[in-house]
Design brief:
By secondary structure, the protein is mostly helical. It is built from four helices and no strands. The longest helix is centred in the C-terminal third of the chain and has 63 residues.
Length: 152
C-alpha cells in the first residue's frame, strides 16, 4: 500500500516539475520576444506552436509515469506547477532581469541595426560593381542621354 501511495506522490511531483519546465521554456520564448518585439499575430502564432509542441513532452510524462493514462490529478499537478512557477519564480526573476538587461537589449538592437545597414550598403556596392562589369556601356549611354536632354 505504501508503494502505491509513494508512486502516486512521485507522479504528482514529476508532473509539477514538468509544468515548471514547460513554463521555463516559455520564459525563454518571452525573453526572445522582449529582445525582438513581434506583432500580436506573430505572438499568437508562436504561442500556438509552442504549446502544440510542448504537449508532446507533457504526454510523454503521462506515458512513462502512468502508462499513458491521463488522470485529472496529473493534469492538476501539471497546471499547479505552471502556476507555481509563474507566480513564485518567474515574475520576480523577470522583473529583476528586465531592469538589469535594458542596456543589453538596447545594445543588441543597436548592433542589429548597424549590421543590417552595413549589409545593405555592402549589397548596394556589390550590385553596382556587378552592373559595371556586366553592363560596361551603361554609364556612357546614361551620360549621352543626359547630354542630349540638356541640349534640347
Amino acid at each position: 500500500m505504501t508503494e502505491v501511495i509513494l508512486g502516486q506522490l512521485r507522479f504528482i511531483v514529476f508532473m509539477m516539475c514538468g509544468g515548471m519546465a514547460l513554463m521555463l521554456g516559455y520564459d525563454g520564448l518571452r525573453l526572445l520576444r522582449w529582445l525582438f518585439p513581434h506583432s500580436k499575430f506573430w505572438v499568437a502564432v508562436q504561442d500556438l506552436l509552442y504549446w502544440c509542441i510542448m504537449s508532446v513532452p507533457a504526454f510523454a510524462l503521462f506515458f512513462y509515469l502512468h502508462d499513458g493514462q491521463i488522470r485529472w490529478y496529473g493534469l492538476s499537478a501539471l497546471l499547479g506547477g505552471i502556476v507555481l512557477y509563474e507566480f513564485g519564480i518567474s515574475s520576480p526573476i523577470r522583473r529583476a532581469l528586465s531592469k538589469r538587461l535594458d542596456q543589453v537589449r538596447y545594445r543588441i538592437r543597436r548592433g542589429i541595426v548597424r549590421f543590417f545597414r552595413f549589409l545593405r550598403k555592402s549589397c548596394e556596392r556589390l550590385v553596382s560593381g556587378v552592373r559595371k562589369i556586366v553592363f560596361p556601356n551603361d554609364e556612357k549611354s546614361e551620360k549621352e542621354n543626359n547630354e542630349d536632354s540638356s541640349v534640347s
